[in-house]
Amino acid sequence: MPTNARYIISLGGSLIVPDEIDVKFLQEFRAIIFGQIAKRKKFLLITGGGRTSRRYSEAAKALGQLNPTDLDWLGIHSTRLNGHLLRTIFRKVANARIIDNPNRRLNAKEPVIIAAGYRPGWSTDYVAVLLAQKYQGTVVVNLSNVDYVYDKDPRKFKQAKPIKEISWPDFRKIVGNKWSPGAHLPFDPVASKLAEQMKLKVVIMNGKNLSNLKSFLAGKKFKGTIIQ
């Protein structure tokens, strides 16, 4: 990885707010990042919306008809709320500004930069890929609540098989070409298309297993799916 490059980590909202805010998880995640900073590593952390986003969307739908753009904005602001929470817990080492427009490069000296959602139609996966382009990232680590990418939806098919390594063309056959807010896909299809063009490596892993993330950052064997 280039000297000035940052690890791009997309932190799923389901990890930050599975139901209530997971303080224990955030404490452990912070400890790992601080440990890596001590080894002179830099990070760009992108936050998802999680349960906060879904609660607002469900309430909005119950109160009246909304178009997809309105629902998308609720999700975007949920990612930004989570982003502010993350910036607060990393305040000693993080840039004071949260990136809400991935098209503008932030000249930050701090070891941690926080980013969140941008605009309707853009998932945080897509934002992560764009930020990798801006900040010399060669890999995006996508932390969600699944261990691997599977050949089928494991919630529907018990016979679904985990995939440890897959090419972008084969991965895109699984997820298709369209993205919609709230879709339960391992990585956004639109972001996948751009990542393939960039020859970017994306690693999908279960963020609940933080010792696994620590192994990955140390260059050791880890559990997850590599897409490249």
Strand order of the largest sheet: 3-4-2-1-5-9-10-8
The counted number of beta strands is: 10
| Gyration radius, in Å | 17 Å
Count of alpha/pi helices: 8
Note down, in words, how this protein is organized:
The protein has helices spanning 13-16, 23-37, 50-63, 68-89, 124-134, 168-175, 189-198, 210-217, and strands spanning 7-11, 43-47, 94-99, 112-115, 139-144, 149-150, 162-163, 165-166, 201-206, 225-227. With 228 residues, it is α/β, with parallel strands linked by helices. It has a single domain, classed as Carbamate kinase (3-Layer(aba) Sandwich). The strands form 2 sheets. The chain has an 8-stranded mixed β-sheet with strand order 3-4-2-1-5-9-10-8, with helices on both faces. Strands 6-7 form a two-stranded antiparallel sheet. It is globular, with a radius of gyration of 17 Å. The model has no long low-confidence stretch (mean pLDDT 91).
Please render the helix and strand layout as text.
Layout: E1 7-11, H1 13-16, H2 23-37, E2 43-47, H3 50-63, H4 68-89, E3 94-99, E4 112-115, H5 124-134, E5 139-144, E6 149-150, E7 162-163, E8 165-166, H6 168-175, H7 189-198, E9 201-206, H8 210-217, E10 225-227
Parallel strand pairs: 1-2, 1-5, 2-4, 3-4, 5-9, 8-10
Antiparallel strand pairs: 6-7, 9-10
Helix pairs in contact: 3-4, 5-7, 6-7
